[in-house]
Write a sequence for this structure.
């Protein structure tokens, strides 16, 4: 597929693009920074400017495409965003994330692109950036869990999901929103492993979960290859927790009294990707426990 990928130079995007290229997709990186990946054109686009978004999505991405025209984009993957709290003013985080997502969805649907994937976030569940401690309503957290965050970043993601659902209702296209957990790159495991094993409390705000950047790329590919689901929201995480403490001990220490929807394995994640496995054949294969 020919893929218009926003935010491809970011932490999650660069691994996802590399995986998509390996799978045979032709990808264009839309970002304010260059990815510099072989065979992937880089286009500098301000996504808060709807004119730029529409023009970039409707135009050739490189001179090579002039010699061998390949037609319109088959899919849009929208990862670009201010990626966290504490990077700029709260209202700027909200403005950029909400407006850019609207512009991307608006352009893609008007151009008739039939597959759109939007990056949402674990933060929508209101745990990560809460003022003080907020615990989940139940565990493992799945897509039915309430999304009532306190912070502007997560608010923007909840708003983006509502926007995506509205565009899908208008058009009937496939639009999938990914509630991505804390993205970890392979080289970071050596940095984090000792802390994760010895001090599980540092992972409380991430619901003791994570997603390997390579498996996130696999998830995007599965979304591209699965049609006909309409509007869907999917949690994205690895199968195991991000702590060395067994899940039963984590429950006793941090989640005592929280309803348990189903039994958990010894080190099973508290952030369920069961829906993605069932509907997309998502199968994460990497993990921090692979370290010696």
């Amino acid at each position: 597929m020919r893929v218009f990928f926003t935010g491809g130079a970011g932490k999650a995007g660069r691994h996802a693009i590399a995986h998509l290229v390996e799978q045979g997709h032709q990808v264009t990186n839309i970002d304010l920074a260059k990815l510099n990946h072989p065979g992937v054109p880089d286009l500098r686009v301000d996504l808060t400017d709807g004119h730029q978004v529409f023009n970039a999505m409707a135009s050739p991405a490189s001179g090579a495409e002039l010699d061998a025209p390949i037609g319109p984009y088959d899919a849009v993957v929208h990862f670009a965003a201010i990626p966290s709290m504490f990077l700029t003013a709260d209202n700027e985080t909200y403005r950029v994330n909400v407006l850019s997502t609207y512009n991307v969805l608006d352009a893609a649907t008007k151009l008739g692109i039939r597959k759109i994937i939007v990056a949402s976030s674990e933060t929508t569940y209101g745990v990560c950036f809460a003022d003080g401690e907020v615990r989940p309503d139940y565990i493992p957290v799945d897509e039915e869990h309430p999304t009532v965050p306190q912070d502007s970043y997560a608010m923007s993601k909840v708003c983006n999901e509502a926007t995506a659902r509205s565009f899908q209702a208008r058009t009937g296209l496939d639009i999938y929103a990914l509630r991505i957990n804390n993205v970890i790159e392979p080289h970071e495991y050596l940095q984090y492993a000792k802390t994760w094993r010895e001090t599980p409390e540092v992972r409380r705000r991430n619901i003791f979960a994570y997603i390997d950047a390579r498996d996130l790329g696999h998830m995007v590919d599965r979304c591209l290859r699965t049609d006909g689901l309409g509007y869907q929201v999917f949690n994205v995480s690895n199968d195991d927790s991000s702590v060395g403490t067994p899940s039963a001990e984590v429950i006793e220490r941090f989640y005592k009294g929280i309803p348990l929807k189903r039994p958990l394995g010894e080190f099973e994640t508290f952030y369920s990707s069961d829906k993605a496995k069932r509907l997309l054949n998502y199968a994460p294969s990497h993990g921090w426990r692979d370290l010696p």
Notes: The first strand starts at residue 2 and ends at 6. The mean pLDDT is 97.
